[in-house]
Amino acid sequence: MLLPVLLFAQGLKLPQHFCVNEAYVMDDEALVRGSGQKAWALDLITEYGSDTLRRHVLQARPLGRRTAFHADRLAAARRELDEGWNNWLARLFAAVREECAGRAPEALPGGSGWEVLERRLLRGLEDLREAYSPDAFDPRRAVGLLDEMVRAAADFGHVNAHEAHRPTTAGRHLPVLAAQLAVARALGAWARPVMPEGADRLAAALRTRPGGPVSAAALVPPAPGTRLAPPSGPVFGF
Known about the structure:
With 238 residues, the chain is an all-alpha fold. The protein has eight helices and two strands, in the order αβααβααααα.
């Protein structure tokens, strides 16, 4: 009775589907410094942030069998966000600051391999939408797909990084930055079901509306000339 009343009070739609799983249990590694008490979610959120904790729990979802909590795997989730997601975004924001005075470039997405990357992202998007759907709910698959998209975007940025240093082809690097900003904007919508705090922080950095549907319409860069506002710290987790 309580949860429907709270949803009604907030003007939210009642759930239409429920996706269940087996128990998620705490193993001995979760004992807090020998005190005999288990690690509480609030303690873990305080230490790792909601993005890291949500990502880890969804990736370890106990489907068809019990899954145990392992502190080292939670730490690995933080490393993946830092070394993969945040590292790529930091390099992208730095490049925009250095090459475009911190504003979204006046260019359409492009660069060597952009068409291939775009097709790969859109194929991954279809799988992601399926993984989010009630009939085929699979958050572990969703996390894997999002990581794959970030790695592909980071590789694209590295492959095209030399364009910024060509002496006779001024401006050829701008489509590369626009392409990566388009991916970043898409991730602000596509990753929000998994990591809403970081996704909203990314949307704020790009000066775009937070949330939005998980669709191909999100794969566009911010309007040319938009002054970006990257955070002083990591975008996802902390």
